[in-house]
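Assemble and predict.
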Amino acid sequence: MKRPEDTRVVVGMSGGVDSSVTALLLKQQGYDVVGIFMKNWDDTDETGFCTATEDFDDVVRVCNQLDIPYYAVNFEKQYWDKVFTYFLDEYKAGRTPNPDVMCNKEIKFKAFLEHALSLGADYVATGHYAQIRRIGDRVEMLRGVDDNKDQTYFLNQLSEEVLEKVMFPLGHLPKSEVRRIATENGLATATKKDSTGICFIGERNFKEFLSEYLPAQPGKIMTLSGEVKGEHDGLMYYTIGQRQGLGIGGAGGPWFVVGKNLQENVLYVGADYHNDALYSDGLLATDLNWINEAPIEAFHCTAKFRYRQKDSGVTVYPNTDGTVKVVFDDSERAITPGQAVVFYQNEVCLGGGTINEIIKNDKFLDYVG
Amino acid sequence: MNAIYLDHAATSPMHPKVIEEMTKCMHDQYGNPSSVHSFGRKSRQILDRARLVAAQSIGANEKDIVFTSGGTEADNLAILGVANESTKGKHIITTKIEHHAVLHTTEYLEKHGYRVTYLDVDEDGLVSVEELKRALTDDTILVTVMMVNNETGVIQPIREIGELLRDHPAVFHSDAVQAYGMLPINVQELGVDLLTVSSHKINGPKGLGFLYSHPNVRLNPRQFGGEQERKRRPGTENVAGIAGFTEAIKLAQAERELRYEMYLHYNQTFIHVLKEEGVHFEINGNDSPRVPTITNISFPGTNVEQLLTNFDLSGVAASSGSACTAGSVEPSHVLSAMFTENSACTTNSIRFSFGLANNEENILEAARRVAQIVKRLTTN
């Protein structure tokens, strides 16, 4: 094992408090720390304002406080090709993509990792709330201790090979502690607001953003039994289980999105939060990634179907084609195609995949898109 | 590891004698040059001497020198000053390879009713006088072409353009920031009406420059206030800075040929080591006349961000000579003009620029470090 001062750690710095504290902690531990800002998206507006410029300015201030070198790297093209194209394609297909999962897989822990390695890095570090456990040659990814902040859901596509070269210095800290450390050390970003939403959309209106890239096709809102309830603005604007923004009221409600018919351009709704159509008992996942070894036979574990949801018990049945069938211990509400399903054995994240089909009574649901 | 500075075209270290002059001035002279007392007069003497030294360095008259806050302000004052004053036309000719201090100023004017022609350059980075001739119209009020390009070091045909414009009423401006101190400059002989010079590129202090302005050129001021600089650039003068700038000019004049030879030697030594080490590279603008201080090298199979970061982490300070947005490097507009936007050269080229911080030893060392990095990045 190299001494810290001989170990170069390249920190992916966003200009936020988490990555700032990441760099601080590594510096305090004596590593040879290099800060790098990734520019993945250009949102320069008419007035010349660009979020990336502001964020990079924060990276510069923090790195100067820590007296570490800082650089930037431009991955706009890779981001567009690998993340944004996927994002649009999924919406076109009526699904609800997860660009953060793809960004981690293709950009932060691929393009960025490669860049860092070309700079002589031994490790890359990010401010993600996840932990890495090294047992001999084995490297596992564990949930962050801050349950509310755990980000392993978004990191489910990382491989053990990648994790070997990764550090998550914040994984054992609660968020409040990270803020406290930032404040105590007077970091320029100590009180900076956390970014919310998808990075390239930022605080903007999601619908407006999407409409700039995909033509919206308004169509009918119906119940599964064919009763027309209103008009939708375009199927891509809705996700399974959604209540807000349907613009239909009246008797029988409240109304929830229960499915989509892409061919007919119909949005299906059903009354009541607990509408039976929203419930299913299994799913088929594709694009599986197993962080350590891939399962060869069925096993029981827990799973998350969306970020910040509590785990649910599931049984995973591996198929010969690499996909898996996931059967829920108890029926689940609003499982959404395109989102990630991520598996856990207690604290260890096993990996995950993309929800491709929803299963109910041993059949694929045909109304979820 | 000691860091080696190969970015003199970005800025240069101050010469010890410059620092000495400035320190002396800061200690002794705090008067305002416009004041009607002995304190003021002493500062005014420094200013007068500076103006004379600056004027003589380019074969001009003292009254034609306007001290500014640097090259950018001088470029802005030249272009906006002429455009706003002229009633003769609305057409400006410049080139695609100018510094942004020029390009962003002409773009601003385009939004205010001016028509701007941006001349192409060939693959060697040269502006064509013939093309410029064709672009000239009766409506052309200003031609602005840099003397030496800041990214490639390519020397532009200023004398020929000056010759061409002798029979045309358009005012001729040249940004000579990278040429001054390396090339002999005489504004009369070159036929230049306006000339930009910067202090910190010639081992003077930052925040200073001057604009030469021919007495026949009517300049509309950009700032308003006192009577300083004959109202063309009001504001109390940076006397200590000007004292340092004067010393830097004097040194640059006295040592010009010596420096030229020395930097040429550094340049050649650097290139020689890269060749010896078996690095695959090409010099951009290699077939054109160039100043010895700047060399722009394309390393196929690499990219700028990777190179610059690696260089810095290994203690070699260079640059891509191009604009940065959010700290990441955009393809160079100069190299895009030379090789088209999609050419790999625009994203794999590095500018190395030599000067006062260099000696034979650190040039050799830097070249070895560069060679090692490029080889490592291209053999993987």
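Chain B has a mean pLDDT of 96.
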